[in-house]
Design brief:
The protein is mainly α and about 325 residues long. About 65% of the residues lie in helices and about 5% in strands. It has a two-stranded antiparallel sheet with strand order 1-2. Strands 3-4 form a two-stranded antiparallel sheet. Strands 5-6 form a two-stranded antiparallel sheet. The longest helix has about 50 residues. The radius of gyration is 31 Å and the shape is globular.
């Protein structure tokens, strides 16, 4: 008898008249808003303009959704193109199925296009939005809870997830809530990146690389717990291999970037004023004012010295004239 467990929702969609409101879609939308909100705050703090993050997100988000769906469909093609399946279901993104690897890859392409149009360095933008992306993933994972999918092995721990659906081969019971594990891990990743960025002044894409490396390290062990069907290479799930390869690439970028381009970008958005840029301008103005005051003081000192010399010469001339008389 289970003493406690996490209940699954009886359904993942509520109909408002003819309009379906899906929990999975709501989680994705809320995650995007949180990512843009936090990214905007960090971008302004770095000296960028308000609204720039949202403008570039208009490019990044659609590309990311397409990339995430493509990765899922390609790696799980049998769900849509095998015998008895309907290939049209591959377009039903609201039913779940987004691969984070494809979402980040094509989302980065969309962000690059947006940055190019605004004349903004892509690595600086990536650093600003990195923690927000991690939080968006943390929120988005709850969409799997609404769909009763991507859970782990059977368990009777107090925080086990109860699965009640029997569709698509599911067996009702209690399982490890891998969606919850990954959600909590992503929150920890976001906090780690924010702390490290403040502590070490990460720049030139290193905050984003830290996010990628930290996420991959967690995804690898969480992936091992999942029991959904997946392709294997040498007995290891495909997503585990992907996490390992991407982790190594991210760490390599961190090391190489720190050696070649240490420090942080001084200007992240041409023509913008704010964050560090304002502080540097104020400091520069104060230095100029102090320099002007020093020059004025030097000028006054030289003038006083000249006056004193003139007075001394006048006294000497008068004394000489008195002796002659």
């Amino acid at each position: 008898m289970e003493l406690a467990y996490i209940p699954s929702p009886s359904r993942g969609v509520i109909h408002l008249g003819p309009i379906p409101l899906r929990g999975y879609a709501f989680c994705i939308i809320i995650g995007v808003f949180v990512a843009v909100w936090l990214g905007n705050k960090r971008w302004i703090a770095r000296g960028g303009r308000a609204g720039t993050v949202a403008d570039i997100a208009v490019w990044a988000v659609p590309f990311g959704l397409v990339g995430g769906r493509l990765y899922h469909v390609i790696t799980d093609y049998e769900l849509y193109f095998s015998e008895g399946r309907d290939w049209v279901d591959a377009f039903k993104i609201w039913e779940g199925g987004l691969g984070i690897w494809g979402a980040i890859a094509l989302g980065a392409l969309g962000a690059w296009i947006g940055c190019r149009r605004r004349g903004i360095p892509m690595p600086a933008y990536a650093d600003a939005v990195a923690p927000g992306i991690a939080l968006a993933q943390a929120i988005g994972r709850w969409g799997n809870w609404f769909n009763q999918e991507l859970y782990g092995r059977p368990t009777d721990v107090p925080w086990a997830l109860e699965i009640t659906s029997s569709t698509d081969g599911r067996l009702p019971g209690t399982y490890h809530p891998t969606f919850l594990y990954e959600s909590l891990w992503c929150i920890g990743v976001a906090l780690l990146v924010i702390w490290a960025d403040r502590r070490f002044k990460l720049g030139h894409g290193r905050a984003f690389a830290l996010y990628v490396a930290a996420y991959c390290s967690g995804r690898a062990w969480i992936e091992y717990m999942r029991v959904d069907d997946a392709h294997h290479i040498l007995g290891v799930r495909l997503n585990v291999w992907t996490a390992l390869i991407v982790f190594l690439l991210a760490v390599t970028y961190l090391v190489v970037s720190a050696k070649k381009r240490p420090g942080r970008e001084e200007v992240v958005e041409p023509g913008a004023s704010g964050g560090n840029a304002d502080g540097e301008a104020e400091a520069s103005g104060a230095d100029q004012a102090a320099e002007g005051a020093d020059q004025a003081a030097d000028g006054e000192t030289e003038a006083e010295a000249e006056v004193k010399d003139d007075v001394k010469n006048d006294v000497k001339d008068e004394a000489g004239s008195t002796k002659k008389n």
